[in-house]
Batch of 4 targets.
Target 1
Amino acid sequence: MADFLTGIAFFMIIEGLVYALAPSILKRMAEMLPQIPESQLRVSGLVAVALGVVMVWFIRGG
């Protein structure tokens, strides 16, 4: 459970940094989001999940 909460904390840190350091870029990305096809968003999300799982696996000594 501690690892899960640490992961959530890191996620919040990274999200906070994006909002704090590059709010204009974040706004532009949010404006472009409706123009991107759902299938492309879905594939991008699945790729991000897969990369995250692989990274955790390697970090933990897979």
Target 2
Amino acid sequence: MTKFISSNSNDTKSRIKLYSEVALLVGLVLNGLAVTLMIKSGLGVSTISSIPLILDLVSSKLTLGMTTFLFQLFLMAILFVVTRKIGQYVISLGLAALFSIILEFYSRIFDGILINGIARYLIFLVGFILLAFGITLMIMCKLPPLPFDIFIRDMALISKKKVRTVKTIFDATCVLSTILISYVNFKSIYSVGIGTIFAMVFTGSAIQWLIDLINRYIIFVPRAYTKFIYHNS
């Protein structure tokens, strides 16, 4: 389907087949937990969540879940202008709404929990690993993933560049935009920390490594109905 997840090391028959819907659901849940853990670490949020978080801080009427959905809606609008596709993007926005609900759920679970000392770094590392793995599953599942991930996937196809390259550029843009919004509104920098910079530099490479590794042993197969929706969108 996409060049950046293809591999010649094993043919299709030699790899384990897993339902794409399972990968999509697991990736969705892992991403929500990962974002929450990285926020709780206090070391800086993930790059894709830096803009939603700063917008949440700017507006007292919007929650993190709301700003996350609005940001993803903006990304889908860009893709629609570039590709003129709409079917799979509508499905992706539905998943974005679900992800926002999951994010709100995790936020309430961890609300009031204070994390100090070395535990902050451990929590961030766990969040980073879960985020990279969750994004990888959603890219490889061959179904419309979250707008964050479908944006990276389609831009990689359009530009004919590797996922890690597009992901790193996207992350850098998010961080710079967050810094600008933060400074304009608060005359200081919020949402961005050492953890954000770490994620910006290494998430793309981590995803590409996981894609290459998983693609050697596993192939994701959509059920007939979702496969029909995806390929006819």
Target 3
Amino acid sequence: MKKLVFITATVALIASGAVAQQADGTNAATGMVGGAATGAIIGGPIGAGVGAVVGATLGGALTPPPPEVVTYVQQQPAPPSVVVQQPIAVGKPVPETVMLTPVPDNPTYAYAVVNEQRLIVEPKSRTVVQVIN
């Protein structure tokens, strides 16, 4: 039992460090919560701790776009909205049928309008990095 408590405390300490290293912590915190829930289902308390660390690391990998990219996307005339059946969420890829428009001054990002929502996307992986309402 002592070993379980020690391992759980160690993992929690590591997880808090992973979250603290993120710029705003939002994606990392979301990843940590999701990872902990998944880990708990699969591996109990130890799985929850490990899942939290993995989720925080993966969630923190998605950095939000700089303010100038968000402003640019907000000011552009909206391309036609594409309707897709799958839910659109940060961290999930958009379907190949969605045409992405590159951001001229920052090729790290592109944008599209899907289900009447403006999305900022990482074009190489087609992963949504921000939803603008």
Target 4
Amino acid sequence: MPQPPETPPEAPPTAPGAARPARRRRPVLLIALPAVLGVAALAGGATLAVLDLTRKPTAAEIEKAGATELAARWKRLPAGRIFPMAGGDGSSEGVGTPATPYRRLGIAVPVPCADGLDREIAAVLARYGCRTVLRATYSGGAGTLAGTLGVAVLPGTDQATNAISALGDAGTRHGVRALQVGGTTAQSFDDKARRLFAVDGNRTPYVFFRTAGWTDGRGGIAKDDLDEDFAFSKAALYDLMEKLRESNDPCKVEGVRC
């Protein structure tokens, strides 16, 4: 007698804690897709950053970096690197000539313009934003000559250039105040001992001054003779101006980032 087909047994109920069938993978793919996009975005951003760091600076960026460095050089460099130690005798890298040797005797702390310059000069420079004056005193000849160099710090090149023009011939009668240096041949070199005044510029945010005189109390003489006798102060000033001149390649200057 034929037997009825067997009925498959029912699946036993899932016991608590038993393993469940694996879930479908589509949700995992949906979650992974935004992650991949995020990684791609980060990679793209990193690529842009690398490109920005490795590209060459533009001419405008180089000019801006150079102007910023030059305007801050007076406080970034030690005073001993701004004011040359000696020159005019073949011992310096400056432009002093063998006939006009000079030697630095002392450097003053920076002072406000009203304290480092004659009143007539300070009043003019104040209109153009004069901030600070740096000074150093030098000796020339056999120690009977002394001179003080001054650097007035202005906000920018245009202000410095306009200030020099506004001074006119006042810059030949007044200027930087003398800096006496105790224990040297310039210990008696005060404002009354000044005989020559001069002002100069080099298309930078700085105005340069020099004054010179004798340390033995000698009186004044004709202007033509002063230029020759005090040539040491001109040599020292030109070497100083080289320290505060615009760099040909500012991106290579220490501390500059183009």
